[in-house]
Amino acid sequence: MQSAAELARSPTGMAAGLWTRRRLSWISLAAILVSLFSLLPLAFIIWIAVQTGWESVSALVFRPRVGELLANTLLLVVLAVPICIVLSVALAWLTERSSLPGARLWAWLSVAPLAIPAFVHSYAWITLVPGLHGLWAGVLVSVVAYFPFLYLPVAAALRRLDPALEDAAAAVGLGPWRVFRRVVLPQLRLAICGGSLLVGLHLLAEYGLYVFIRFDTFTTAIVDQFQSTFNGPAANMLAAVLVTCCFVLLGIEVLVRGEERYARVGSGAARQQQRTRLGRATIPCLLLPVVTALLALGVPFVTISRWLVAGGADVWRLDEIGLALGQTLFLALAGALLATIAAMPMAWISIRAPGPLQRLLEGCNYIVGSLPGVVVALALVTITVRIALPLYQTLFTILVAYALMFLPRALISLRASIAQAPVELERAAASLGRSPLKALWSTTIRLSAPGAAAGMALVALGIMNELTATQMLAPNGTRTLAMAFWAHSGEIDYASAAPYALIMVAMSLPLTWLLYVQSKRMAGR
């Protein structure tokens, strides 16, 4: 039997190595092209600013309306994100570290609000409390809609912590609260920072939620400006300010995260943390998950059920619902497939050929993926209208927008799955006489298929609930579930909108369950 060195010197081994290097060069070129294409929205913002001229830009940016929108956006982020942090950390500790009755049930109910689109949350609240408007209404609905983005990473981090560190702190006389503050909380910093960044970016990008409660943000103002002037410089300059806000959030997250080390040498203790007994505090502590579930899940389901009952059988227009469902599934599957294919070169070189170029390209994809959908849509509208008019409002353009917006979701899953497929298996298959394509298919592609499917599911979930980009870019006659829901709710026909809301939630629940199961699996549960 040949050794690894002999195999590498053999003709088949040398051919396999040469083919691998050639393939990496082509894949690197494909990754560069995808990354350059993903930078189009940023290039568009810069190009529009240069074309508009400094005087016009300053007149459009430095005006009272922009200051009002900036104040609204800052207040929303400053108020909603800390509340999400406190709520998520408290729920994660109760469900993962305490003797809370029904902890597993409450853990799932803390993730389930992700299955409800944010604008459906707002629809439910505004129909239940018609006078709910303004900043505090925005904070309330934003917290109940987006806190699971923080709960998931914090709960996963708590499951992975080594209990020996807390035992050592308690052994030197620290009380439970001081142990949590000085030992547990610092180890949750990465999870809190990552989740807070995700919540903040969603707050900047959200449109439907704030339209319902009549709270103006940059995204609502951009869409309004686009609808009134189609493609005027005012909407583009508002988009530039919104992009700046996104970059500021990214910078703050990097600064707060710091460079501390959170890993330890050795595997730690192979045991779970003993749960803290709540004793007399059980009932007061139980109130937090109960009230949270009622606000985040009870209100939407009760409201949707009430409107379904009020509308009766007449609201179930099966021909319209079937058409919207079919178009939604088609766009979700096609967009997910395109995003996964576009992410493959980047995911491949991040595992097979890591280096400075790979980190730069990957960073470009993540930065552009953090931009709001309205900015990506506005960029593609301008580019197609001014340069490639036949592509305006075509299937190609809307699928490209989906690929740009949700590329990071596909990239993360693909990268993890390719990392689990050793390159030695592929080389061994090639050395046994299989063609390069057959060797790739029989090893890496098959082993990474589950990860690719998970990434496609995450992208499809995002596309199903996408509203602003679909409204601005979809071909004439397109009517997705989100668009149909928005059209009926915009006409104050809440009963006719209820079936679409129910179907979107029903389609999202299985994917949300998969996220929950995956988070527990990664923590070894």
TrEMBL record:
Compartments (UniProt record): Cell inner membrane; Cell membrane
Name listed for the protein in its UniProt record: Fe(3+)-transport system permease protein SfuB
Keywords: Cell inner membrane, Cell membrane, Membrane, Transmembrane, Transmembrane helix, Transport
Record's keyword annotation contains Glycoprotein: no
InterPro entries: MetI-like, MetI-like_sf
Any coiled-coil regions, as ranges: none
All residue ranges annotated as the ABC transmembrane type-1 domain in the record: 70-256, 325-515
Protein's gene: fbpB
PROSITE patterns registered for this protein in UniProt: ABC_TM1
